Q: What sequence folds into this?
C-alpha cells in the first residue's frame, strides 16, 4: 500500500486544555494506527503516540493545533483524531 500524507488543523475544545485525560484518549487512539501522527503548537511538535510529548505542547482551551499524518492509513487516522477533537474528548 502506498504511503499518504494528510494535514490539517484541530482546535482544543476541552475546558482545561489538552490535559492528561484527553491525552490518554488520544494516545490510545493514535497507537491503533500505523501512521505517524504529529501535532504542532507554537513551534513545538509532538507525536500523538507519546503522552509525554503531548503534555509538553501545553495547549490551552481554544488552541489551534496543526496535525500532520503520514502512512498507509493516514486518512483514517487523521479522521479519527479530528473526530476526537471535534467531540471534545467526551468532556
A:
Amino acid at each position: 500500500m502506498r504511503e499518504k500524507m494528510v494535514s490539517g488543523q484541530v482546535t482544543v475544545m476541552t475546558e482545561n486544555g489538552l490535559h492528561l485525560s484527553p491525552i490518554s484518549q488520544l494516545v490510545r487512539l493514535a497507537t491503533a494506527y500505523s501512521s505517524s501522527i504529529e501535532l504542532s503548537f507554537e513551534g513545538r511538535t509532538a507525536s500523538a503516540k507519546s503522552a509525554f510529548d503531548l503534555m509538553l505542547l501545553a495547549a490551552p482551551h481554544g488552541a489551534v493545533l496543526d496535525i500532520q499524518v503520514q502512512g498507509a492509513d493516514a486518512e483514517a487516522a487523521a479522521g479519527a483524531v479530528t473526530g476526537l477533537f471535534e467531540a471534545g474528548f467526551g468532556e
In short: The chain has a mean pLDDT of 96. The chain has three helices and four strands. Residues 4-90 form a domain with the Histidine-containing Protein; Chain: A; fold (CATH 3.30.1340.10). The longest helix spans residues 74-86.
